[in-house]
Specification:
With 402 residues, the chain is α+β, with helices and mostly antiparallel strands. The chain contains eleven helices and 21 strands. The strands form six sheets. A six-stranded antiparallel beta barrel has the order 13-16-15-14-17-18. The protein has a five-stranded parallel beta sheet with strand order 7-2-1-11-20. β9 and β10 (142-144) form a beta hairpin. The longest helix is centred in the C-terminal third of the chain and has 19 residues, at 381-399. The protein is elongated and about 85 Å long.
Length: 402
């Protein structure tokens, strides 16, 4: 049985590493395998997460992921990495990394394992696929196949080769859902001053869609001249991108003190003001807020930075509290599509068998990884999905030789 794989990214490497020797050929447009993988997790490769569940994946067909992630859960992925020689670790958040904290470790180890089972053809871009005649064409030659696995990724990080061209080749025969960009940053209507640019806080970012709370994350939040970024923003970014795609009112609410209730925080500031009545409000809060943000915070609260603590009234305390516990930004659009980490949307999973990853009409064609309409949240979920979908398809294809 001749199995042809288009792509040599992370899902393809997992697939080849799971397969038996001598069956598989991978065609890759780049000069080496796993190029996009090298950029994963800021070069550290957050490859899965101990917090598991289908709620961490977005798809128009939300139950599609169940079989794959149950068949190859995070613990099995960790065990597999240990089996092929990758030592792993994890953070208190549940995010899992190679012990080396290097994406290259994962890429190299997966490639070494995949090379033992499969042949690689580099520097050849697929230009046409004939599902009926079962032929894949590049500029150089044609490749017949018995089974075809499409593992080309989505349309994010295009410099890595994941440029979305595969969807143009298959769209007339395979239904593709509308796509947008996930795990990225956003532009907002409200902007902080140049002084605040690049300032990082640890706080709670909550997404509101049409005024209703959707999702929250407590982690780093970074104020930029265009809007907002940081890990907490990335954590809610998939839902936010979908909200923007649906043209819903999309807002981010920031809580600088998520561990304190509103009344507790207000009482704390009142006590500081009482203790230091001769200080200005700016001097009162300089020990609890990054100095680069104070002028912007007070401007939002409509409080003069020179107002003395003994002159603050109930409205001032209320406005300051709202500015630090319920600071809202209206999101206008995705800021960075070029460096977005995942594609939301892709091959419509309603036409894919979740237990094999085969297409319902073209039963010898399999789709795995990011090219499917499955987008994992920030935190290692997309590599987990790449591994789980590759495991399911490889297990089925191995069974055909039994």
């Amino acid at each position: 049985m001749k199995i042809l794989v288009i792509g040599a990214g992370v899902s393809a490497l997992f697939f080849a590493s799971f397969m038996d020797e001598g069956q598989v050929t991978l065609i890759e447009k780049n000069e080496f395998a796993g190029r996009k993988l090298l950029a994963t997790g800021n070069g550290r490769c957050n490859f899965t997460n101990l917090n598991q569940g289908k709620e961490f994946f977005k798809s128009d067909n939300p139950n599609f992921v169940d079989f794959a992630i149950d068949s190859f859960d995070s613990n099995k992925l960790i065990d597999y990495f240990n089996e092929i020689g990758i030592a792993t670790t994890h953070l208190p958040s549940g995010r899992c990394y190679p012990l080396t904290m290097s994406s290259k470790t994962v890429r190299d180890s997966l490639f070494l394992k995949a090379k033992e089972n499969a042949d690689f053809v580099f520097n050849q871009e697929v230009t046409d696929i004939d599902f009926d005649k079962k032929i894949v064409k590049t500029k150089e030659k044609s490749y017949p196949y018995d089974k075809l696995v499409i593992a080309t990724g989505g349309k994010t990080l295009q410099n890595s080769g994941s440029d979305g061209k595969i969807f143009d080749l298959i769209k007339d025969k395979v239904k593709v859902t509308p796509m947008t960009y996930g795990i990225t940053n956003f532009e907002t209507k409200e902007k902080f001053s140049k002084k605040a640019k690049g300032t990082k806080i640890s706080g709670k970012a909550s997404l509101l869609v049409d005024g209703k709370y959707s999702k929250s994350s407590i982690d780093d939040i970074i104020f930029q001249n265009y809007g907002l970024t940081g890990t907490a923003i990335l954590d809610i970014s998939n839902e936010l991108s979908i909200s923007l795609k649906n043209k819903s009112k999309s807002q981010i609410e920031i809580d600088f003190f998520p561990d304190l209730a509103k009344e507790e925080f207000t009482g704390y500031v009142r006590n500081l003001a009482k203790k230091f009545p001769a200080r200005t409000i700016k001097e009162i809060i300089i020990g609890i807020i990054n100095e680069k943000l104070i002028d912007d915070i007070l401007k939002v609260g409509k409080i003069s930075p020179d107002k003395k603590a003994n002159n603050l009234n109930d409205k001032d305390f209320e406005m300051l509290c709202r500015s630090l516990k319920y600071l809202r930004f209206n999101v206008t659009k995705i800021h960075d599509k070029v460096n977005a980490q995942v594609t939301i949307g892709g091959v419509d999973t309603r036409y894919i068998d979740p237990q094999t990853m085969a297409h319902n009409k073209y039963k010898d064609v399999f789709f795995i990884g990011e090219c499917l309409d499955v987008a994992g949240d920030c935190g290692g979920y997309n590599i987990w999905w790449a591994a789980a979908s590759a495991f399911v398809s490889s297990k089925f294809l191995r069974s055909l030789n039994v």
